[in-house]
## 1
Amino acid sequence: MAEHEHPFGHEPSAIATRRVLATGGVLALIVVGIVIVLHFALRNAAMPYHAQVAIRPAPIPPPPRLQPSPENDLAQLRAQKARLLSYYAWTDSAHHYAHIPISRAMEIYVQRHASQSSNAKSADASAKKQGARR
């Protein structure tokens, strides 16, 4: 038998296992080295007092304080919006358009669309009866 022939007709291993493992080991060492260097560089150079900065209270901005009591301002805004939704008024000087309370507007809407929906239902019912007769 020849020196390079393998029994049972198997091909020789085409993978250089030692080279692959050595290359993987070198790459792993390079990655670990870069991580260690970045860790120390960032800890000592970029963020030397990170813990002190993190626990320090936030500085108060300089005057003027634009909203000293946001709760009161919010309550006033909500009261103003509630007034807008609950009164009658003309929106133009020619008295063509009026502002009405939202509850009354919803009542008018329901009255108008209830009659339209009942007409549509009766039309659908008659169409179904016509289709059933054919």
## 2
Amino acid sequence: MQSTGNSYWQTELIGLSALDGNTEKVQSHLSKLGESIRRVGLDMDGYAQAAAKAMNGIDLETAWNQGGEALDNFANDYVRSMKEFGASAEETYTGAALIRQGFHSIAEAAAKGELDNVTAQANELAHKIDAIPADKHIVINASGDISIIEDVKPVITVTGSTGIFTIGNNGVNITVKHQGNFIIDCKKEIVYNGNTSLMKDTAGAFFELAPDTDNTITIIGTGTAQINYIPQFLYDATLDNMDWGDK
């Protein structure tokens, strides 16, 4: 971890202030550390872990060994530090998820086949406090790239419905009572046939395809559905592998 004299001493002062129970000085030194990191372009993740270590008096390995409240406090202070340093939401909560899952890096998690679990927890943590909108998700790949993408909102063209047609994804379903053809536009949240709105004949909720779920499409009723969508780097959600239920 690259360091400067000032950043090193600010980290030390955070630890001394934490030992004294002086929360105002802890915050003051954390803010000054953040200024140094932004000015010089230092490793935010490394210094956030160092600041969490200083605030808790234990290193990451000890936090893992103790688990429970010790690990929670370490992870929470890591998040606090990353925010103070100006890190993005995806960087912050990916790092927190790695800490909580017991990994030093994305590469380590990927090598052990646990990257999906890390990604799921990063999203859970970020969505819990509205750090990212509910219709967006953090995506992490094995190369270490982290991004936020918008959930895919498909447009479904239904032909030959005989009356009641239900389609959904992972328990979120929309039902249309209409004979013939119609379009369900999940992005615009409308159902129509030509120029005629069918919203009065529609019940349920418009669904999305999210990158951290199995995206199991189910259909109840008679008719043919064609799903169109614009890919948003949607991982592990190809239509070829979807469960289409009863058609």
## 3
Amino acid sequence: MDKKSQENLDSADLLIKNGKYNSSIHCSYYAVFQYMKYALNSFTISLKNSNISYKKQNRMTKSRNSHIVITDEVVKRIIEVSPIDAHDFSQKIEKLKDHRNTADYQLNILKKKKSKKDLELANCLISTLKSKFLLP
């Protein structure tokens, strides 16, 4: 998933350069979502909450919204390290998700400025995940 995440970041950048702003926001969000799945699978930041394999993630999300389940599991783990960072992460990922929903499902055509900010936000969220989950 980390490679897919990076591919989505690269795609978001290319889409911005080519004026495809709605699609770039979609890629920015999914880059973070895929990295959250990778972080949960790969490492643990506490003894209380261990890693969650991809297989288990799939089982957990079979009858529930995968985006909510994965985000909740990530935030639960960040809380143990830094409640303030967990709150900040939660707000930022929800903001990016809202923008992705607008880009994907609303009539609005989003602008270059918003898509660039969302790509920056995605990179910031992935940096937080790398830091909090002790990922390279």
